[in-house]
Write a structure and sequence with these properties.
The chain is mainly α. The chain contains 15 helices and no strands. Helix 14 runs antiparallel to helix 15.
């Protein structure tokens, strides 16, 4: 730990002067592909039981039916059945318009399909009903981030970070917003927060990756696939790892490697992780950047 803190101190001094690695040396050429996560049989059994209960809906009041539909919708979502999930979540709100969790889930789903106006409405409704909702603030920040409204994303991420500053993912997403407006200051802030708040949580290694304290190859060999949590699968760990490696390569301007990592994140089938949810958007944007680069190169050659 002391050696990594020393490197972080150096990062603070070096700031934006750090050299970016050569894309041709990317560890993407040597990585392994994790086996996709299989659909959880427990979720499928629970869906069957909930469906049987729903078929006897006359025995349930509106509040109970709303909770049943919300639960089944969340299970459909975890299995990647987003269309069925949205149907149940909307039906849950018809039964109970004050179900904040359903609004939050719908907001996530609308963000995934880039229907940002609907997503804002959902998260605002969730926060109006439950101002201290544990996830709606983060998720609204995600919507603003992918909608290109970085100022709004930074505000939501900042509030979310301040409520639990030792959460490495809150630090990470605040950095990803800040780097869009001032890369040098964002890097300095990330290093300072890393030194001040870090604990033994796995997610801090992701912050070290983006800082350059841990290099890409060492991350893949020595950190990503090892020391899994008691209830953590390798697919879950690698879903996160692939996604943030993709973000790292984006920041380095290597959109080709970024696209590979985002594809790998999608192949894990960890549908309930935000890293899987938004890997599709990231992949599309990396591919668009590659197309723009190719078009620009072609124009330069013609001149």
């Amino acid at each position: 730990m002391k050696s990594r803190i020393a490197v972080l101190a150096s990062v603070l001094l070096l700031g934006a002067c750090a050299q970016l690695p050569d894309p041709s040396e990317s560890a993407v050429m040597n990585l392994f592909v994790v086996t996709p996560q299989a659909p959880d049989m427990r979720y499928q059994i629970e869906i069957a039981k909930l469906t049987d209960l729903a078929n006897h809906q006359n025995q349930l009041d509106d509040a109970s039916m709303a909770q049943l539909l919300y639960r089944r919708g969340s299970l459909y979502d975890a299995l990647g059945l987003s269309g069925l999930a949205r149907i149940d979540l909307n039906r849950a709100l018809e039964r109970d318009p004050r179900l904040a969790d359903a609004y939050n889930f719908l907001g996530i789903q609308y963000t995934e399909i880039e229907q940002y106006n609907y997503a804002y409405e959902m998260f605002d409704s969730a926060l109006e009903l439950e101002p201290e909702h544990p996830y709606a603030l983060l998720n609204r920040g995600m919507t603003a981030y992918y909608d290109g409204r970085i100022d709004l994303a930074s505000k939501d991420y900042q509030r979310y970070f301040e409520s639990q500053p030792d959460d490495p993912y809150r630090v990470l997403w605040l950095y990803l917003a800040e780097v869009e407006t001032d890369a040098e200051a964002a890097r300095r802030n990330l290093a300072e927060r890393r030194i001040k708040y870090a604990n033994g949580a796995w997610g801090w290694v992701l912050n070290d990756l983006l800082l350059g304290v841990v290099d890409e190859q060492s991350f893949l060999n020595d950190y990503a696939p090892k020391h899994l949590g008691e209830d953590e699968t390798l697919a879950e760990r690698m879903c996160e790892s692939y996604f943030y490696l993709g973000k790292l390569k984006q920041l380095e301007g290597d959109n080709q490697a970024a696209a590979v990592y985002f594809r790998l994140a999608l192949t894990t089938n960890v549908y309930r992780f935000l890293e899987h949810r938004y890997a599709g958007i990231e992949l599309q944007r990396s591919q668009q950047a590659l197309e723009q680069q190719a078009s620009s190169t072609k124009l330069d050659a013609q001149e």
